[in-house]
Write a structure and sequence with these properties.
The chain is built from 19 helices and 28 strands. It is α/β, with parallel strands linked by helices.
Length: 680
């Protein structure tokens, strides 16, 4: 039997999401944070059904191979495995919630009323709330042949089975307005705090809505729809207009999942499926409540139930009396969020906006904060007479509307807005500021592993490099010049980058060259090693090159947070490769690449995971770290993560998350990194 060479990407992702859920069962994690991990699991799974499930079903239907080269005949098996795994995880989800977390809440005098009768005191208060607040948002609709009902994407509904006078049965759809009202309502009574679901407040008052009917049954449902936008590869018009049109259609996409409460009578299920056009959706039996991502807003706030505060440290070397551009003219400085404050990044753009010597600003934006201070600084810079050019990626999934809003505001303020070509996303995280000093132009800039987004910087671990390195900044300017032409990369417009690694130009070939160099060292009998940290690993050319390196004797240590299609620890293929995953209070997001280089280590950072989309369908920028102090600090951080024996798990050759053996010293990497960077 031929050796399997790649994990399936979707199964790999589902195992990662299972690892997220298991943090909810970790008794070392504070109670509210455990509940939030359930919320993250639920939100992730909704996105999987919106983004990946349509792909899995399409591959099965058309009989083509997927990105892991799984044969057409195996597609049904992959889909079945995915559904079985999701079902098992959802059962585990329910067990963690009901058997562990709800009892713990009760021990704190907090009762989450989860599928149970309301005490009399709660009934009275919630009835008043229903009549004064909730009732205004309810819109019951009869479900019959003359009245087709379209359930909106991921919205919550009840299907209510009524018996009217004369014994006539009637089926009603009733919205649960959790997007207009809080999902949870708090009542304090009898020295306890009761938390009620909005769903149950409506259930308990159905007789006030359907006064003349007998309520035979009430069942919660949710429909998840395909999130893909229908964009032509070559769109000749204004891309922003087309994105806006497509966003209006997104929630009208094909249904991919029909999630329903158990116990719905067969006849009612058949009617719902037919009336709501759900024949092709994956019918999934769930619990009484859906959209449990709303647990993120559970009204429970106390120091005992949350993580201890880790105040962001101010990076050393950034004197408030001296402009950042002046400081980095002498040396590179790196910021590690969220351990260190994001204020210096905001300050960099704010100083550029008001500095009379600044003439030009260039930046690429992929996911913009909803109330972006950076964009406001760019608007101020344009109004202050500076030339500001912004590459806004309108196709950043689920951030299209927010990015479009900011693009319009910037354009109105005089900022030059560039959109990527339709078939190519720009995922690079780079910015340049050009300042005229004594008649000459001086460059300063930022290169990052994560988005220029002050909101996500609070819980995404990323690295942002401040630099005045002329070699890097001139090549960054070439990237912006290329983007401004709105061309696809082709053999006729290639750029010979010597320092930056840019997808569509030299990124893949440069990484192959760096791996080949380690292979040559290993074959020459010298120490050879590669350490890589990324979010996702899928692209087969680079995976095969890592297998080749392993076979040559190169020691390869990988930290891969989510999707990993590489199979580690297989004799004759990957026995020198280990893969670990870290799930903790912060989302691991940085991409770091370290090559031993015969003891003279080379370190690269960047925006690119090794996914097909990043390598073949995006503009990405990775960059070398030249400053020795910065390089050593990054190596120290990665070494702490490789030593983690608390939050880390290893991936085995069956995709399972295997706990790292406990040993002394005990190392929880995120805590130790915080101590390192805070000087504790």
């Amino acid at each position: 039997m031929e050796q399997r060479r790649f994990f399936n990407r979707d199964l790999s992702w589902l195992f990662f999401n299972g690892r997220v859920m298991e943090e909810a069962a970790n008794d070392k994690v504070p109670l509210l944070e455990r509940i939030k991990f359930l919320s993250i699991f639920s939100s992730n799974l909704d996105e999987f059904y919106r983004v990946r499930m349509p792909v899995l079903r399409a591959l099965q239907k058309i009989g083509e191979k997927d990105d892991s080269h799984i044969s057409a005949g195996e597609q049904k098996g992959i889909l079945r495995q995915a559904l079985d795994l999701i079902n098992a995880q959802q059962q585990r989800f329910g067990a963690i919630l009901k058997e562990q977390l709800i009892p713990l809440l009760k021990s704190c005098n907090v009762r989450l009323l989860y599928n149970e009768a309301f005490p009399d005191a709660v009934k009275k208060v919630t009835a008043e709330y229903f009549l004064s607040e909730v009732l205004a948002f309810l819109q019951p609709v009869a479900l019959d042949n003359g009245n087709k009902f379209f359930p909106e994407n991921n919205k919550l509904y009840f299907v209510v089975n009524l018996e009217e006078a004369g014994g006539t049965e009637k089926l009603m759809m009733l919205n649960i307005p959790s997007d207009e009202l809080p999902r949870f309502f708090t009542v304090k009574a009898d020295e306890e705090t009761y938390i009620a679901f909005l769903d149950d407040i409506i259930r308990n008052n159905l007789d006030r809505i359907f006064k003349d009917s007998r309520i035979k049954g009430c069942y919660s449902i949710k429909v998840t729809r395909d999130a893909e936008l229908d964009l032509q590869d070559e769109y000749p018009g204004d891309l922003s207009d087309e994105i806006e049109k497509q966003l209006k259609k997104r929630d009208l996409g094909l249904a991919t999942r029909f999630l329903h409460q158990s116990g719905i009578p067969l006849r009612t299920m058949q009617l719902i499926t037919a009336q709501l056009d759900l024949q092709n959706a994956s019918a999934t039996e769930g619990g009484v409540y859906h959209n449990l991502r709303d647990f993120f807003s559970l009204p429970l706030k106390s120091p005992e139930t949350s993580y201890e505060d880790w105040p962001a440290a101010n990076p050393t070397g950034l004197d408030e009396a001296v402009s950042i551009s002046s400081i980095i003219a002498d040396k590179d400085i790196i910021i590690h969020t969220p351990y260190q404050s994001y204020h210096s990044i905001l300050r960099f753009f704010n100083e550029a906006a008001i500095n009379p010597d600044v003439e030009e600003i260039y930046i690429s934006l992929y996911r913009v904060a909803s109330n972006s201070r950076i964009v406001n600084a760019l608007i101020s810079a344009a109004k202050n007479g500076k030339s500001v050019q912004v590459m806004v990626e309108l196709k950043a999934r689920f951030d299209e509307a927010n990015n479009l809003k900011w693009a319009k505001k910037m354009k109105a303020a005089g900022v030059k807005i560039i959109y990527s070509v339709t078939a190519l996303k720009v995922h690079a995280k780079i910015a340049i500021v050009k300042t005229r000093k004594a008649g000459r132009i001086a460059y300063s800039g930022l290169l990052a592993t994560g988005n220029f987004n002050e909101s996500t910087a609070k819980f995404y671990t990323d690295h942002i490099l401040f630099t005045s390195n002329a070699d890097l900044l001139r090549e960054m300017e070439l990237v912006f010049l290329f983007l401004s032409k709105r061309e696809k990369p082709s053999p006729d417009n290639q750029i010979a980058f010597k320092h930056l690694l840019v997808a569509q130009f030299n990124l893949q070939s440069k990484f192959i060259e760096l791996i080949d160099r380690e292979i040559a060292f290993a074959r020459a009998g010298k120490p050879a090693a590669i350490t890589i940290k990324m979010n996702n690993l899928e692209e087969q050319v680079l995976i095969n090159k890592l297998y080749e390196a392993s076979q040559a004797g190169v020691k390869i240590e990988m930290i891969v947070r989510s999707i990993c299609c590489l199979i580690p620890g297989v004799a004759g293929m990957s026995e020198n490769i280990t893969v670990r995953r870290i799930v903790d209070r912060y989302l691991e997001h940085g991409r770091v690449f370290i090559f031993n280089n015969d003891g003279n280590k080379e370190v690269f950072l960047g925006s690119a995971d090794w996914m097909n989309r990043n390598i073949y369908h995006r503009i990405e920028v990775c960059f070398p770290v030249y400053d020795e102090a910065v390089k050593n600090e990054l190596i120290q951080i990665i070494n702490l993560q490789l030593q983690d024996n608390i939050q880390a798990v290893s991936l085995n050759d069956e995709l399972e998350n295997v706990p790292v053996p406990k040993s002394e010293p005990v190392v929880q990497a995120q805590r130790e990194i915080y101590r390192l960077l805070s000087g504790i």
